[in-house]
Design goal:
The complex is a heterotrimer of chains A (about 190), B (about 1000) and C (about 90). Chain A has one domain: Gyrase A, domain 2, CATH 3.30.1360. Chain A has five helices and eleven strands, in the order E-E-E-H-E-E-E-H-E-E-H-H-E-E-E-H. Chain A has helices spanning about 35-45, 90-100, 120-125, 135, 170-185, and strands spanning about 10-15, 15-20, 25-30, 55-60, 60-70, 70-75, 105, 110-120, 145-150, 150-160, 165-170. In chain A, the strands form two sheets. Chain A has a six-stranded antiparallel β-sheet, with helices on one face. Chain A has a five-stranded antiparallel β-sheet with strand order 4-5-6-3-7, covered by helices on one side. Chain A is globular, with a radius of gyration of 17 Å. Chain B is α+β, with helices and mostly antiparallel strands and about 1000 residues long. Among the domains of chain B are: about 160-290 and about 430-500, FAD/NAD(P)-binding domain (3-Layer(bba) Sandwich), CATH 3.50.50; about 630-670 and about 765-780 and about 810-860, Probable tRNA modification gtpase trme, domain 1 (Gyrase A, domain 2); about 860-1000, Probable tRNA modification gtpase trme, domain 1 (Gyrase A, domain 2), CATH 3.30.1360.120. In chain B, a hairpin with a 4-residue loop joins strand 49 and strand 50 (about 980-985). The longest helix of chain B is centred in the middle third of the chain and has 15 residues, at about 470-485. Chain B is elongated. Chain B starts with 13 loop residues before the first strand and ends in a 14-residue tail after the last strand. Chain C has about 90 residues and is mostly beta strands. Helix content of chain C is about 10%, strand content about 35%. Chain C starts with a strand and ends in an 8-residue tail after the last strand. The model of chain C has no long low-confidence stretch (mean pLDDT about 95). The chains are: A alpha+beta (about 190), B alpha+beta (about 1000), C mainly beta (about 90). Chains in contact: A-B, A-C, B-C. The interface between A and B is large, with 53 and 55 residues. Bound molecules: zinc ion.
Chain lengths: ~190, ~1000, ~90
């Protein structure tokens, strides 16, 4: 058996901000341009991909983030078992999308670390390192943006009032998490 | 202190809170709320520094950020020391230590003061003229110049403070919280705009907040009381954020502004711990309202720089805001009504005024009448011609002006004094407006530049827009705001305003003297010691462009950027050259408006946050096992793993030997990995790599070389065909992001018809590479379910596999020339796979090796490293890699460039192997390669790109690029070093196992 | 720093983008048929205009899409933004 070693082992808690990695969470990047692609995804997953820029959609099991006109990230709402890395959704999409040449499906489960943030200082922290204008974003549940935080690429999903899921590439995650804690300590 | 210079209670000063501070080693007292300047003045200290060139005694001149003279060093010889701090801005706190700058040994006795008497030999351009020739003397001059120049000392220890950056996005930014800014901020915020109001001072209200006179009223209330109510109101508006002690440093295009929010500089040092000192605000505003006010102009006359000479408005501010009298015998010298405002204010407080000297003839002004009513002597149509007093003014000499203002007439009158207030009218603070790209126009009637063409959605209001008087401001500003913010009405429509200010002014840029100009010192730029005489000299010497005159005379080039004297410099140039001010233009105002500390600019990008670092999923193991790390791109990579007592060389020799004799293991997770899918994936690879891809079977791997369109090698790596329409490409560690970017560029712009999707999976996989004769035994123990026989799993092929329930991909590829396998597994299982390999390889002496050994091993095989053996000037032909360039393919990126006249030249630098005559001599990478040491100059044929001592070959090996090297096989060349010459022979770059037998060993 | 209106993501700060030089320089379909001079024209020669310039940008730190920008290089004002493959605006 292989041991599972995720990137961020600490949970951090400040008076108005909590941050921790959530794992294992399946993440897939799906790509496609054709109309049939969108409908095949819809049928396979019972989930309509968001076509409006900077938005997301959600089913019981999955959340889909708009990343570009032909690119989405799908992630599982539930925590999975770390003893296997076979994902039902991936297999289904491989069958219905990749094999039928409708588009591309790529497993990025460990490409990204999901940092869940809760509290009312989330955006104050972002403002210390991101040029993105969060004024409207923070009030719009489900909004998504890809931008820069502390010089590092991030995907930010506004889950709920005072709750955000932040995705960062694994190799940057420890550096970013350290930076976020440094900044959070002064909020 | 015998004198009592504190004159009245003030809102800003807390007289119950005494603060002690040191200036030049002596302890003084002030009150909370004082600036260093106001506290020094209250202690009767005017002399605070020496001037830059002549080391003349200089005093506090202003009460704001425009201060040219009173710049001090804080906390000398500590880690918190800071030079060039304006005494007029720094608020005192318990324990503040300040000292004078640019003087030695002390401000009262300064050796450099001799320069003042030498000044006839220190004219404009003195440094340029004297020190330019002969060039070889420069080193000596530089020592002398550096020693005598410079304002203050920079700290030598790391900065202990914390600085932070913050992005702010707002609808409206209002810069300046004077009466105009307050009106604007309230109007904007109350109409639904998310508004930010900033001011550099610790209080709101600008100069109106202490305008306490029956002559200036709004709705029948004294202007300061009216404004105070407005301020109390705006503090309650939710939509409005107010930041004091916040100075806008830069105004860039697209309404992007940088401001420094000063959070702790007014606190005692022990209270600053763990607090952010400065915050650099990066502001994006949809609309900007600039209400930065105006700066009072000095007057230019002989010896106008003595301690005790201040701007008239500064004297008023010190008296009204800080409750400090700048002198006991005050004289005011003016060309407009402003000085009378000061005079009335001083008179009310019981501060003595000896006389007022006014350039103007008889003027009908209510303010003058009030002064005269109080029996203060006003000399009308007079000018100051000279002053005296070395460390403090003690006398002014005045004479009558001729009708045309060009000369003085009559006899000299002396007035003794200890303080002289000067007022030359007002200059709109248009610095930020011009920084943003705004164009100015010149208004002749009062000789000011005012905003004309706005480059972005912004407006200037109040006195920075040339509306100087209360009635002008309050009648114009609401109208302007209505239009700018698209409003139907404002709260300020029908204000009843009383202002007794008469706008007449007699502007004379350089006041006449009874002496010839050569005998006078009328300072234009106080900080840089530029006089009107210097400017005239520059013009005589033929300089015409205002930018040239500025640099030649150094006018406006100090830390204050000549905020006081720039207009006079322009005026004098215009008059002397006979041109019009409006046509002359102004010099460029550059950011920052006031200096920023480096800490503020850098923010948190210090220490571990100076640069980003990336870690592999196996990083923790490398740390536990005492690896040394090297930075590769942004990655921290294990460099070598020294055992006890080993140095780098020992470790690398041991690791290299083990990798070939038994087994080695490398963390290759940093290699870029791009997932390629789509029905045109093969065609796409055909176009981006130099070799052919269509016929690569599923499950096979192939090495590819990628060129730029100019034919130069750009990247390389192994790509594997996972399925009919599915590949995984590896790139170099450093090239991952740029390769993906370049491929996307071609896909999106040149070949949008191709059905191909690219997705980075670099971070998704950990890559564990096991090589050496025992590699097969080791990996087959880790993955027992997989058939590792050569028949099933030959070199350059790939297999899907599982370790337990965890999927992984295994490639049999080699960068060392050894039999080797790469296990790619989802990152979070990477460390575990590595540990399993270590465990399985224990009995086979499995040895972790780092990047240094990897480089050595591949060099033994003559494999290139893009970026080390290539430098964007090497074609595949230059690398002797013709074999990888398809002759059959019609096109691929860079193909056409491979037969440009330049790329087919025979005498290009080509990659060759180099063997040293003495096998123990290891060449230095980067060393030059020559053939003939006697030729003059020595001809450089190329340089060494890679060099190692090979433990497997027991000799030194190297790669290098040599002009026409391809045809020099076996030829002797020379590597000249500092202390010797090393003889080398050009060799085949493949040093080991030319037949590739070891791949299947 | 500019604000660039990505045709896909909306207004973002310049630091999220990279510039890609002059737009509408099409890679020759048959490079092998070209003379050295013609190839050099494609490879090296750029107008570098002071004034209205058509140029390419990519939203590197966002949607990763390339697009075109019409920018006045004398004052950095962006006059228009349009997708790859779309016709440049005439006004
Ligand atoms: Zn975008």
């Amino acid at each position: 058996m292989l041991n599972y070693t995720n990137a961020i082992t600490e949970e951090k808690s400040y008076s108005s901000l909590q941050m921790k990695e959530i794992k294992p969470v399946m993440k897939l990047v799906i790509r496609g341009k054709k109309r049939e692609f969108l409908s095949a995804i819809g049928k396979s997953l019972n989930l309509l991909l968001p076509t409006e820029a900077n938005t997301s959609s959600r089913s019981d099991k999955l959340t889909a983030l708009w990343l570009s006109p032909d690119e989405w990230m799908i992630y599982s709402n539930e925590i999975l078992n770390s003893e296997s890395n076979e994902y039902e959704t991936e297999n289904l999409l491989n069958k219905n999308i990749s094999k039928t040449n409708l588009g591309a499906v790529t497993d990025v489960t460990d490409q990204f670390v999901l940092i869940n943030m809760k509290g009312d200082k989330i955006f104050d922290l972002f403002e210390t390192g991101s040029p993105f204008n969060f004024n409207d974003f923070r009030n719009k549940k489900g909004s998504v943006t890809q931008t820069i935080l502390a010089k590092i690429d991030v995907i930010i999903h506004n889950q709920n009032q005072n709750e955000v899921n932040l995705f960062v590439r694994r190799s940057f995650s420890q550096h970013l998490f350290s930076w976020m804690n440094d900044s959070a300590s002064r909020l | 202190m015998t004198k009592n210079l504190r004159v009245k209670k003030s809102n800003l000063i807390d007289e119950t809170y005494k603060v002690s501070f040191k200036f030049n080693g002596i302890t003084y007292y002030g009150y909370k709320g004082d600036t260093l300047a106001s506290a020094l003045l209250a202690n009767d200290i005017h002399l605070v520094g020496r001037s830059f060139k002549y080391h003349r005694p200089r005093g506090i001149m202003t009460a704001g950020s425009e201060e040219p003279n009173a710049i001090v060093q804080l906390h000398n010889n500590t880690s918190r020391t800071e030079p060039n701090v304006r005494a007029t801005e720094i608020e005192i706190y318990e324990g503040l230590e300040a000292s004078s700058q640019n003087c030695w040994p002390s401000v009262n006795f300064d050796v450099g003061g001799i320069n003042n008497f030498l000044s006839p030999v220190l004219p404009a351009g003195f440094y340029y003229k004297t020190f330019m020739w002969p060039a070889s003397f420069w080193e000596k001059y530089e020592y002398f110049i550096r020693k005598s120049a410079g304002l203050g000392k920079s700290p030598t220890e790391p900065d202990p403070d914390i600085y932070e950056h913050k992005y702010i996005h707002c609808d409206v930014l209002v810069i300046g919280a004077g009466v105009s800014g307050i009106v604007a901020a309230k109007t904007s915020a109350k109409n639904g705009y998310k508004t930010l109001l900033v001011d550099e001072k610790p209080y709101l209200g600008g100069s109106t907040i202490y305008q306490n006179s029956e002559h200036f009223k709004i709705n029948n209330q004294i202007s300061s009381s009216w404004l105070e109510k407005e301020i109390n109101e705006i503090k309650k508006i939710e939509n409005l954020e107010i930041k004091t002690r916040t100075s806008v440093a830069a105004y860039h295009g697209y309404n992007f502004l940088l401001a420094r929010e000063n959070l702790t500089d007014h606190m005692p040092l022990e209270q600053r711990k763990n607090k952010i000192r400065h915050r650099l605000l990066k502001i994006r505003a949809k609309k900007v309202i600039t209400a930065t006010g105006s700066l009072e102009r000095p007057l230019i006359f002989d010896n106008n720089d003595r301690p005790g000479i201040l701007l008239s408005s500064a004297i008023e501010k010190y008296a009204s805001l800080y409750g400090v009298a700048c002198g006991e015998k005050n004289v005011l010298f003016t060309n407009n009504d402003s000085a009378y405002e000061t005079a009335i204010s001083l008179y009310q407080k019981g501060i003595n005024i000896e006389a007022i000297v006014d350039n103007r003839e008889e003027i009908d002004s209510k303010l003058i009448k009030e002064i005269e009513k109080n029996n203060i002597k006003v000399y009308k149509g007079y000018t100051v011609v000279d002053t005296s007093g070395y460390k403090r003014i003690n006398k002014v000499s005045i004479m009558q002006l001729s009708k045309d203002g060009q000369k003085v007439i009559g006899s000299k009158i002396s007035i003794s004094c200890d303080c002289l207030g000067i007022s030359g009218g007002w200059t709109p603070a248009v610095h930020l407006f011009t920084q943003s790209g705004g164009k100015l126009k010149f208004r002749d009637e009062d000789q000011v530049f005012i905003p004309n063409i706005y480059p972005s959605d912004q407006i200037s209001i109040g006195s920075c827009n040339g509306d100087f008087t209360l009635d002008e401001i309050l009648s114009t500003v609401p109208k302007t705001l209505k239009e700018f913010l698209n409003l139907k009405k404002t709260d300020y429509e029908d204000l009843e305003i009383k202002s007794s200010f008469n706008k007449s002014k007699r502007n004379i840029w350089l006041l006449p003297s009874d002496k010839v100009i050569g005998k006078t010192k009328p300072f234009v730029d106080y900080q840089n010691d530029a006089t009107a005489k210097d400017i005239k000299l520059a013009l005589r010497e033929g300089f015409r462009s205002i930018e040239h005159v500025k640099r030649y005379t150094t006018t406006g080039m100090g830390t204050d950027q000549g905020k006081l004297g720039n207009m006079h410099a322009l005026g004098i140039i215009a008059e002397t050259a006979g041109s019009k001010m409006g046509e002359l233009g102004t010099t460029t105002f550059r950011p920052p408006y006031t200096p920023l500390t480096f800490g503020t600019i850098v923010g948190r990008n210090v220490g571990e946050y100076f640069d980003i670092f990336r870690k592999t999923p196996i990083h923790a193991w490398h740390i536990e096992n005492k690896a040394e790390f090297e930075n590769v791109g942004q990655w921290k990579r294990a460099w070598y793993y020294p055992k006890k007592g080993e140095n780098m060389h020992d470790a690398v020799q041991r690791e290299s030997k083990a990798a070939r004799d038994s087994a080695g293991i490398l963390d290759a997770s940093t290699l870029g990995k791009i997932d390629i899918q789509g029905t045109d994936a093969s065609e796409f690879l055909n176009r981006v790599y130099t070799n052919a891809w269509s016929k690569l079977a599923i499950g096979k791997c192939r090495y590819g070389l990628m060129l730029n369109e100019d034919g130069m090698v750009y990247d390389d790596g192994v790509t594997t065909r996972l399925d009919e329409n599915h590949y995984i490409m590896t790139t170099t560690t450093g090239g991952a992001a740029t390769v993906l970017g370049k491929l996307e560029d071609y896909l999106q712009t040149e070949w949008p018809e191709l059905d191909v999707y690219l997705t980075s999976v670099t971070d998704h996989y950990a890559t564990v590479s096991v090589c050496g004769p025992y590699s097969k035994k080791i990996v087959s123990r880790v993955i027992p379910d997989l058939d590792f026989s050569d028949e099933n799993f030959p070199h350059m092929s790939f297999k899907d596999a599982k370790i337990g329930k965890i999927k992984c991909r295994v490639m049999r590829i080699s960068f060392t020339g050894e039999h080797s396998y790469e296990i790619n597994v989802q990152a979070n299982y990477g460390k575990s796979v590595w540990e399993k390999c270590m465990e399985a390889g224990k009995e086979f002496n499995i040895t972790p090796y780092g990047t240094e050994t990897m480089h050595l091993l591949r060099a033994e095989k003559g494999f290139i490293i893009v970026g080390q053996d290539t430098d964007a000037t090497m074609t595949p032909i230059d690398l002797q890699m013709d074999w990888i360039v398809s002759k059959k393919k019609y096109d691929f990126i860079g193909k056409r460039s491979l037969y440009r006249s330049d790329t087919i030249r025979e005498d290009r630098k080509q990659l060759v192997g180099l063997l040293t005559e003495n096998p123990n001599d290891v060449l230095e990478e980067g060393a030059q390669i020559v053939a003939d040491m006697n030729k003059s100059p020595v001809e450089m044929l190329g340089h060494v790109t890679s060099s190692y001592y090979s433990p497997n070959l027991k000799k030194s090996i190297a790669l290098g690029v040599v002009r026409n090297g391809k045809n020099m096989m076996g030829q002797k060349l020379i590597i000249p070093m500092e202390d010797k010459q090393i003889n080398v022979t050009v060799a085949d770059p493949v040093f080991l196992d030319k037949e590739n037998k070891r791949l299947n060993a | 720093m500019f604000i660039i209106n990505c045709p896909y993501c909306g207004e973002r700060e310049q630091s999220e983008f990279k510039a890609g030089g002059e737009a509408h320089i099409v890679r020759p379909k048959q490079p092998t048929e070209l003379s050295d001079d013609e190839w050099a024209e494609y490879l090296f020669m750029r107008k570098n205009i002071k004034g209205i310039q058509f140029e390419r940008w990519v939203h590197t730190h966002g949607c990763r899409k390339w697009f075109n920008v019409v920018r006045d290089t004398s004052n950095d004002k962006i006059k228009a933004v349009y997708k790859m493959g779309e016709k440049p605006p005439t006004k």
